[in-house]
Each structure stands twice: as C-alpha cells, then as structure tokens.
C-alpha cells in the first residue's frame, strides 16, 4: 500500500466532523482484511509540495511507548500506558486514555525514529485544534544527534506549522526519539500530529522499491481538509484559500501514480476527497478506482472489506467528476449553465450517478401506471431488476425524468432512487411513485409547474446516455398546474 492517505487521520475525518475515538486507517483495514504480513507500506509523496504530513508508522521502528500523566508535570506513576504506531491524534471532548483528565494531562512517547534514506528532514507539531483564549500547550522533541526542539502554544490556522525542527540524517540509522506534550484547557481541545516534510525524491524512491516487489499496488491518494476547506490562508498551486483553482490531483501525487504505473503492476487507486478529482490519463490505466471520500472513523475497515471482497460495493457518484476545470464556467460566474449533471453538456471523466459492482444487473419489463394523466395526478412505474452476475450485490436503481416542453434544465433530472439486494440469478420488481412535486419543473421565476406535453422516464443503473444499463418510456400530461411553495 502506497500513498499519503493510508495513515492520515485528517483524511478520514473531513471537515466539520465529530471526534473519532477508535479510528481505523486505510492501512489498518487492509492489514485486517488481508493479514498483517501480506504487504508493505510506503508514504510515497506529500499531499502537495510544501505541505507537511504525519510522520508515518514506518519511521518508528518497533512502535512508540506512550505514558500518560494527570497534570502537566510528568509526575508520579503514569495513569495509563500503551503502544502507538504513530503520533496523529484528535482528542477533542474525549479522554486520550482511560483515567486521564482530558482537561489537564501530559503524555510522553519514547522509541526510535528511522528515515528511509539520507537527507534533510523538517519536523513540526500540528495542532488538531486550538483556541488562543484558553489553550495552554507545550511540546518538547528530542532526536538523538539533533538539538532539542521546544514550542509553546501559539495558535495558527488549519494545521499550519508554528516552527520546524530540521534534522540531517546520514543514512537509515535508528535514533532515539522522545516527544513530550502537555495540555491544559477547559474546552477539551486536545490533539496532536507529529508531522514532517521529507525529501520528495526519497519518498518516491522508497515507494518505487516497495512497489517493484509487490503483486498489486493499492495507491491511497487524494485531498485533505487542510487543502480544500473554508477560509484558509493556503496559497499553493491548485489551491487558493481553501478553494480549488483546478480539479487535478496535486503534482506530487500525480508523479507518484505515474511511477507506480511504470512498474507494470496492477494499480488500484483509492481516492480520498470531499469533492471531485481529475486523474487525467491515469484513470484509464488504473486496474480499479475506489472513491472513498473522507471515510470517517471506520473508513479503513470499509476499504479493507470492499477490496477483499467481503462487501460488494454499490455506491454511485453524487457529483460529476469533470475532466478538468476548463470544462466549467468561471469561478465568479454564479449561473448554473454548464454546471452539474443537469446543465453540463461536455464529456466528464465519470458522470453523476455512476457506480460499479462486483456483479452485473439487467433491467426489463418497464411498466407505466398511465400512458396519459392529468396535471396533478401521480404516476407509478415498475421495472424488474435481475442480478446477472455470480455474486450477491445491491443494485441502486435510479429514475430520471425529462420533458421536451421544458427548456431548463435541458437534461434529465434525478427524481428517485432505491437500493435492492439480489442474489445471483435473482430478480425483483422495483416500483416508484412520482407525485406532483416530482413531475414539476421550476420556471425562471422559481415557480414549480407541471407542464402539458410529453415526459420521458429512464430507470436504470445510472444516467441515460452514459452506457448505463436501463430502460426508457414516455407518457403524456394534459393541463398545467402550479405548485405552492
């Protein structure tokens, strides 16, 4: 497994989140599903050049021993001890360990650090959250052969560093490592990430070496909320203040994927993001692409179960994955023309509603309740769905509606969807009911109106005209009806 998202907590959490008490990282989920000795891991690349990311567990040979103390003086016997694989924790409103006061505690990690190759490494402490009005935190880092690094709480925005600890490593030698962290705050805002900026060529070479010895490569790439978010000071290529100035994967990760592709091994791309990401030409060469979004506390477990085949995936895209930002209107153009699946007329990488399964489904026997109805009368539709593959799975049946007499939106609109579980060879009837609100379209003034004329319905595994399996039918409506807000 290769990629920065495999062991990154923020890539599970996303924006505006709760606090995960037992997060399962993607690497953890893969190890659980396939066995702890089934593969190797390399970070491979930063999310974007100049962005620090958590020091990976591969750098802490033998793990880290953590000792927790109540109070900020590291006094007396630890109230809790445990072994950690890395330092990347969010303890907002929760105790970091049993018996530890979440308002006032200290923790010491000890172990060894070992970098993948010689070079200059820059380390930093990133706050999970901070409030300058009541946060009192301090850090001390000791790495053998380097000056001691200390910092006190001076809050910065969205994980931006306070200051860095630069250390030169002459090779892969193990060095003693100690990190001490104290926290005192009545608002339970504890959390810490020990991050680095490692030489990019070193990370890439480590990934290349490990990939060459693998049978299959799982590349965990994408974005994090410190790149795409709200009101951030970040200004790097592709990202401006939390907004995205292009839709492509950052250069550092694109380079990584191209190197992995060059090995000739099958590459499964696991994409973590809160929005659509264009993989450009890399999409066609990937053995598979799994969009896992910001997976949440058990996102890694879900990933392992899907890739191992314990769970048959059935999700469908809730947004359009465009080829590039050049297909879209200007960022400051707030009209809907050219945006979303209903108004976009170009060819996307993956359309809204798209999704694959480990099995296949066929649709037959579309029946309309009425071939003609008056405005305000509901329409019923039924279709039979069959699992034509060899594995049990869920079909997500989508219903789209369009009306030739309505000029906007010009494309079919999603008016319903349902999920049905089917064993191999099994078929079931799926029914929809379109009431007057589902049959109405908005006028230019915002009034929802049912128009007289011909309506076309499509029921299938995706949008019409996207190679998705499905069936279409038509019916007519007489009269008009305006709906109350």
CATH topology of the domain at 47-197: Jelly Rolls
Rounded average pLDDT: 92
Look at the helices and sheets and give the structural class.
Answer: mainly beta
Q: What is Rg?
A: 26 Å
Q: Please estimate the helix content.
A: 10-25%
Low-confidence segments, given as residue ranges, are 157-161
- Overall, the morphology is elongated
How many helices?
A: 7
Report on the biggest sheet. Answer: 6 strands, antiparallel
Would you mind describing this structure in some detail?
- Helix content is 12%, strand content 35%.
- The model is unreliable at 157-161 (pLDDT under 50).
- The two termini are 52 Å apart.
- The longest helix is centred in the middle third of the chain and has 13 residues, at 200-212.
- Among the domains are: 47-197, Jelly Rolls (Sandwich); 361-482, Sandwich (Immunoglobulin-like), CATH 2.60.40.
- The chain has seven helices and 28 strands.
- Strand 7 (136-143) and strand 8 form a beta hairpin.
- It has helices spanning 10-13, 26-34, 200-212, 251-262, 282-285, 299-308, 340-343, and strands at 53-54, 64-70, 80-84, 88-92, 104-113, 119-127, 136-143, 149-152, 164-169, 175-184, 189-197, 217-222, 235-236, 239-240, 243-244, 267-272, 288-291, 361-368, 372-374, 379-387, 393-403, 413-422, 427-434, 441-442, 448-450, 453-460, 470-478, 481-482.
- The relative contact order is 0.12.
- The strands form seven sheets. It has a six-stranded antiparallel beta sheet, with no helix packed on it. Strands 1, 4, 6, 9 and 11 form a five-stranded antiparallel beta sheet that branches. Strands 19-27-26-21-22 form a five-stranded mixed beta sheet, with no helix packed on it.
- It is mainly beta and 485 residues long.
- It is elongated.
